[in-house]
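4.2 Preliminary Data

To establish feasibility before requesting continued support, the project team ran the inverse folding procedure on a target of 419 residues. The structure was first converted into the token representation described in Section 3, and no sequence information of any kind was made available to the design step. The complete token record follows.
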């Protein structure tokens, strides 16, 4: 229910919070330069990562396989921020494809290329802090998954580039997220040590199984406990951001692929892929016991929507009645204790608050991606009727809670759950 609709009924007054609450945008992105994957890549892997020309277009080839999941991986020309807004808002009455909807490409905004320009853009947008994710990481981890050694090398090279180009914490305002690839536990622990030594305040893990020396498995199995123990001891929050889904082989059995480009996927692929990977990842963290063994972990789901939460809660609740011996804790309470959620901007905030909790829902604009909002504060067009307190929490303070930062709401009662 949008605020406009609720205005005909009874919209709580949140004018103070809308005017004064400092925004923490939990979902923004950088556009990496062409050297991001290769500048620090060891010489032995140089031929494994190539930018190639396919007609007029640049593509990335990893181990000789070209991927078009990201249409222009150099990001010299991009779709404008929010170009696909009508599609994701369900207002595509003309039946346009994503490519038709986005219009002419633009030069990548300077704010997507450097931290100084990003800070200037935050000031213009009225945003105080943001989480800043790499755009290429999901493509890399998916495309090189069959070669764990290569994957680890590319991810470390990307993190080195990110540190040099962005820093992991720029002026306590832009928190860029280095990546931890979990394919090998010892290597993942070394990567964690590297990013912590260089000031990382948050890290990114792909919500998917990983392939290591022992084949494919969940990163929530007990063999990964040394990594999770290190993460918990460091107090490092972990983001599970939407990524290229690891379900290609399954979906291809239903529908032969014509492209991996997300802008050209069929309606069936949109339907089947959905948000299966985030539901499975968090289900694994709960069912395989990671969040019980390490109850102080802070995990956030970002850009995965929220429609998967109710079905997951239903299934977990049902399983506790059938297999209580497998759950030393109530799995729903484990979720509420350890998991934060940044729903899609077009999704329901009230629904997440009702299910997960008042302090576990975070605002994210997905700037500068075309599927995001043109302006972070454009969110109010879709906002549900939130009162003053919930507005302070949603637009900033819940992200600060996730990050372990002081909240901004000056009200002494803000530390306690709202009435």
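Position-by-position output of the design step:
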């Amino acid at each position: 229910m949008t605020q406009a609709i609720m205005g005909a009924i009874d919209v709580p007054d949140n004018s103070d919070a809308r005017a004064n609450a400092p925004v923490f945008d939990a979902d923004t992105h950088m556009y990496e330069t062409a050297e991001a994957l290769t500048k620090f890549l060891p010489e032995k892997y140089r031929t494994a990562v190539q930018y190639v020309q396919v007609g007029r277009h640049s593509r990335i080839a990893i181990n000789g396989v070209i991927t078009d999941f990201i249409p222009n991986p150099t990001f010299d020309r991009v779709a404008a921020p929010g170009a696909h807004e009508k599609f994701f808002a369900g207002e595509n009455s003309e039946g346009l494809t994503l490519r038709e909807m986005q219009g002419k490409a633009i030069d990548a905004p300077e704010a997507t290329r450097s931290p100084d320009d990003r800070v200037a853009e935050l000031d213009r947008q009225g945003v105080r802090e943001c989480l800043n994710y790499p755009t290429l990481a999901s493509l890399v981890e998916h495309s090189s998954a069959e070669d764990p050694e290569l994957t680890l090398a590319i991810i470390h090279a990307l993190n080195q580039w990110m540190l040099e180009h962005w820093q992991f914490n720029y002026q306590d305002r832009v928190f860029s997220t280095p990546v931890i690839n979990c394919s090998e536990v010892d290597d993942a622990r070394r990567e964690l040590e590297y990013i912590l030594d260089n000031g990382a305040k948050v890290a990114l893990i792909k919500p998917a199984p990983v392939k290591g020396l022992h084949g494919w498995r969940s990163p929530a199995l007990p063999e990964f406990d040394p990594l999770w123990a290190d993460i918990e001891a460091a107090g490092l929050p972990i983001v599970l951001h939407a990524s290229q889904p690891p379900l290609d082989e399954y979906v291809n059995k239903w529908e032969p692929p014509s492209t991996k480009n997300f802008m050209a996927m069929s309606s069936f692929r949109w339907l089947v892929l959905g948000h299966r990977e985030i539901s499975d990842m968090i289900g694994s963290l709960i069912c395989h016991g990671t969040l019980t063994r390490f109850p102080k972990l802070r995990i956030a789901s970002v850009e995965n929507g929220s429609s998967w939460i109710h079905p997951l809660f239903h299934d977990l609740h049902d399983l506790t009645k059938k297999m209580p011996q497998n759950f030393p804790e109530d799995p729903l309470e484990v979720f509420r204790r350890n998991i934060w959620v940044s729903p899609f901007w077009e999704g329901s905030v009230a629904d997440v608050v009702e299910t997960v909790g008042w302090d576990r829902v975070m605002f994210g604009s997905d700037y500068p991606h075309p599927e995001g909002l043109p302006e972070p504060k454009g969110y109010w067009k879709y906002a549900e009727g939130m009162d003053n307190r919930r507005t302070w929490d949603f637009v900033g303070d819940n992200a600060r809670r996730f990050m372990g930062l002081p909240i901004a709401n000056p009200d002494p009662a803000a530390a306690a759950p709202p009435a």
